[in-house]
Hints:
Helices cover about 35% and strands about 20% of the residues.
Amino acid sequence: MNSSNIELEKPAIYVVATPIGNLSDFSLRGQQVLKSVDFVLAEDTRKSALLLQRYRIKKQMFSYHDFSDAIRVDEILGIILEKPAAVALVADSGTPLVSDPGFTIVKKSSEEGVPVIPIPGPSALIACLSVSDIPIDRFIFEGFLPSKDSARISHLRELRHESRSMVFYEA
């Protein structure tokens, strides 16, 4: 298998996991998908441009993040359905939707019958757990805690009797 273009399902959104630190950790399949899609939806086009440059991928990118409004989501879905297009959704690092943007467009795509296809790869959550000294046979992922002290304390109090290992992200 080489890193050339592959035939993709259209219309479709490919949720592509990207490296979390070392650009060399990008999967061959992730590279192939990015080379083959019609365009890329990126959390931060400047950061994603570095990845695309590293792998000599020349694709049009559009910004997509949690602050993208419903009109933007509808515009993107309109293009995907009309063309029809295969589109990659990428986050700055790791797997989109895991404490990163993407939920709104994935949900709306599913509702519209547009296939959403995962392209697995690095996950900061799993990488961290794999080298931890806590039991990981059962764990919960809480993502980012609330930023306000009172909400954070309240949320932690709700979890105080949790017996599974807990994972939190911190900015």
